[in-house]
């Protein structure tokens, strides 16, 4: 008992049994070595609001918490409990919790609250936790940066022609400060957490053995306090013999892509190459938007533009933008249209997606430019004015300046395009 009183008095007067400066705490055990000294108190030091983040956003309120727990060994009841915690910033003591032996607790915590953290708070933070038998140190380095909303670094990639029983992984990785939380969706419904590995910044969705009901459209949503972002859509389809022809087409296109990059080829081949299983984000600096407005709707506008190809030539495109970039309904509608186009893929009778710019404002969805304009306008403009007498004649609905061959070709192209849509988006097509 006499020994305990002397020890306590030395602590109260700051004598050298335990150093009063964090940088010179040679007598204490480091947190990672506490297992070597069972009587020393285990320690945890973290930022309560961002326990898993390496970088902390400037301007936020944070709490640096040091937690000391009872050691694994002790001479008598309660003797191993921590009773004193000291907090340091750049080796200078900034806060003390406890200090008397009567302050001992099974789990003792000391918190340092910082409001609207700034660059001045960058540096080394540490703590010393003491019990009757010894002390343990812990340290962390605080790295501060400006907050930013999520941006996807890795998008899930479509997995087609997967045989039943095969294993498949989808991965998403998003950057942002603070670290974004990733949520997975399948066909518009949230995927249960127990099927996902990892939540913050990087997330993996694994299928150990693919079954028919696993087929669908998958994407992930990244959220932090600064905003949200949505990944590209990845399709998971079960393999059948019917896919073999499509696989051969892809192989042929990939063979074309292996040619010398300086070789110039036609726009149709270029668009087909761009459509192969890829990240649809395109460099914003490669996009030139003109003042030539091609159309305007309730939510958005379409302007003619040019996309700079890797061979240096310009590809004519149509660029869709939002009238109000802050309107979430409009944003979701445009993103949903982009996701539909990525699922549809390339077809000669469907207007194809060239790419998108969604990491920064404003949002751009870039599609193939069709010089002939709207088919609806073409058909209406080709109508022949008829007299009252001619109205009673048969087949007046096809009185047009276009020939029968041209009209049949249009009908055939529409049917081919619809058949392609049905094969890609069967579950999304409704008939009323």
From TrEMBL:
MF-aspect GO terms: ATP binding; transmembrane receptor protein tyrosine kinase activity
Residues the entry annotates as binding ATP: 295-302, 320
Membrane-related topology note: Single-pass membrane protein
Sequence ranges assigned to domain Ig-like in this UniProt record: 41-143, 150-237
Gene3D superfamilies per record: Immunoglobulins, Phosphorylase Kinase, domain 1
Keywords (A to Z) from UniProt: ATP-binding, Disulfide bond, Glycoprotein, Immunoglobulin domain, Membrane, Nucleotide-binding, Transmembrane, Transmembrane helix
InterPro entries assigned: Ig-like_dom (IPR007110), Ig-like_dom_sf (IPR036179), Ig-like_fold (IPR013783), Ig_sub (IPR003599), Ig_sub2 (IPR003598), Kinase-like_dom_sf (IPR011009), Prot_kinase_dom (IPR000719), Protein_kinase_ATP_BS (IPR017441)
Listed CDD domains: Ig
Alphabetized SUPFAM superfamilies for the sequence: Immunoglobulin (SSF48726), Protein kinase-like (PK-like) (SSF56112)
Subcellular location field: Membrane
A Pfam family it matches: Ig_3
Coiled coil feature spans: none
Any one Gene Ontology BP term: cell surface receptor protein tyrosine kinase signaling pathway
Residues annotated as domain Protein kinase: 288-432
A cellular-component GO term for this protein: plasma membrane
PANTHER family linked to this entry: PROTEIN KINASE DOMAIN-CONTAINING PROTEIN, TYROSINE-PROTEIN KINASE RECEPTOR
Protein name, per record: Receptor protein-tyrosine kinase
């Amino acid at each position: 008992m006499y020994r305990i009183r002397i020890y306590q008095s030395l602590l109260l007067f700051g004598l050298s049994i335990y150093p009063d400066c964090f940088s010179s705490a040679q007598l204490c055990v480091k947190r990672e070595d506490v297992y070597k000294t069972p009587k020393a108190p285990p320690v945890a030091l973290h930022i309560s609001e961002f326990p898993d983040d390496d970088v902390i956003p400037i301007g936020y309120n944070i709490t640096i918490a040091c937690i000391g727990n009872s050691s694994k060994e002790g001479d008598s009841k309660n003797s191993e409990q921590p009773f004193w915690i000291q907090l340091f910033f750049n080796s200078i003591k900034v806060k003390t919790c406890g200090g008397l032996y009567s302050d001992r607790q099974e789990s003792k915590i000391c918190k340092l609250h910082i409001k609207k953290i700034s660059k001045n708070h960058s540096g080394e933070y540490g703590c010393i936790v003491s019990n009757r038998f010894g002390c343990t140190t812990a340290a962390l380095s605080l790295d501060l940066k400006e907050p930013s909303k999520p941006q996807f670094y890795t998008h899930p990639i479509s997995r087609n022609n997967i045989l039943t029983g095969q294993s498949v992984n989808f991965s998403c990785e998003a950057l942002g400060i603070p670290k974004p939380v990733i949520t997975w969706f399948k066909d518009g419904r949230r995927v249960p957490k127990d099927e996902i590995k990892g939540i913050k910044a990087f997330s993996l969705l694994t299928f150990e053995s693919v079954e028919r009901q696993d087929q669908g459209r998958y994407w992930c949503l990244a959220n932090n306090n600064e905003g949200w972002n949505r990944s590209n859509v990845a399709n998971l389809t079960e393999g059948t013999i019917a896919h073999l022809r499509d696989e051969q087409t892809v192989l042929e296109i990939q063979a074309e892509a292996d040619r010398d990059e300086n070789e110039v080829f036609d726009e149709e081949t270029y668009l087909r190459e761009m459509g192969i299983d890829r990240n649809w984000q395109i460099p914003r600096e490669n996009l030139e938007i003109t003042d030539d407005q091609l159309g305007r709707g309730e939510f958005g506008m379409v302007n003619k533009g040019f996309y700079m190809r890797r061979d240096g030539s310009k590809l004519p495109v149509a660029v869709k933008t939002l009238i109000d970039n802050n309107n979430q309904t409009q944003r979701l509608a445009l993103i949903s249209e982009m996701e539909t186009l990525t699922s549809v893929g390339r077809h000669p009778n469907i207007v194809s997606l060239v790419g998108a710019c969604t990491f920064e404002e404003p949002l751009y969805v870039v599609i193939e430019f069709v010089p002939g304009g709207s088919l609806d306008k073409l058909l209406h403009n080709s109508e022949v004015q008829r007299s009252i007498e001619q109205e009673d004649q048969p087949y007046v609905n096809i009185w047009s300046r276009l020939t029968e061959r041209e009209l049949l070709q249009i009908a055939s192209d529409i049917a081919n395009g619809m058949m392609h849509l049905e094969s890609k988006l069967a579950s999304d097509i409704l008939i009323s």
